[in-house]
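Dear V.,

Thank you for sending over the compound details. I've combined the ligand you provided, nicotinamide-adenine-dinucleotide, with the protein sequence from our construct and run the structure prediction for the complex. I'm sharing the raw inputs here so there's no ambiguity about protonation or stereochemistry in the SMILES, which I know was a concern on your side last time.
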Amino acid sequence: MSAPDFSVSGKHVLISGGAGGIGTAFARAFRSAGAHVTIADIKPPATDEGFAFRPLDVRSDEAVKAIAAGTKRLDVLIHCAGRLLRHEEHKPEVFMDVVDIHLGGNMRLASAFRPHLATTKGCIINIGSMYSYFGASMIPGYAAAKTAVVGLTKSLALAYVEDGIRVNAIAPGWIRTEISRIGRENPPFNDKVLARLPTHRWSEPEELAGTAVFLASPAAALINGATIPVDGGYVAA
Ligand SMILES: NC(=O)c1ccc[n+]([C@@H]2O[C@H](COP(=O)([O-])OP(=O)(O)OC[C@H]3O[C@@H](n4cnc5c(N)ncnc54)[C@H](O)[C@@H]3O)[C@@H](O)[C@H]2O)c1
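Below is the predicted structure of the protein with nicotinamide-adenine-dinucleotide bound, written out as structure tokens.
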């Protein structure tokens, strides 16, 4: 039997929210594995690391369609754009906005790039959360969207299989990035998270990247519709 094929060399990868902590870690990992990476984000990267950059607001149908129209080839689509607004998300308009970024953006990108991915027999990687499994009283929009990402991932996997496209998601645990900073800097919240976490520490974005590269590789050909917790055992605890 030949060795499993974990290669993503030569693949074209687009990462929404690619200027953020997790998106940047994914971009570096795919590039070091030989892939061509484009990051798309509402804001430019803080440091220019030489990745192709496309400005994009994932809430805009037109902007998403335009970026798809300007893309010749795509093998891997990763939806990493995200935002949360502690306490604010009980306002319906804020709730809808947060859901639109995480869930609407996911559907817009998947739909716009389906033809590209059908051509390459590519894959989609969505981003869930621990709040794909648990409620969150202060961020109901974020938690609702992340729970729905699990369902959307299954549904798109079933719909796109006829095109040879796989759709999976990663549910990150507690990762040291900007989106989690307010929680990390809130001692009662921070203590509660660390007490339950078997690793008792926040993780680095790089610790998720191997799972993303694996999911995009031929070795993951049988994985479809799955959401994989990469969480240091938090869900199991
Ligand atoms: N950090 C964690 O602990 C954690 C845990 C679980 C899930 N996640 C998820 O991982 C993903 C990446 O988050 P991160 O931790 O890298 O946070 P981050 O704040 O570092 O990055 C989020 C990125 O999304 C971009 N963004 C926000 N709104 C956008 C829009 N409308 N259009 C395009 N881009 C937009 C931001 O500019 C930013 O670069 C998010 O979906 C987040 O919910 C993070």
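A first observation: Residues 92-120 form the longest helix (29 residues).

Warm regards,
I. M.
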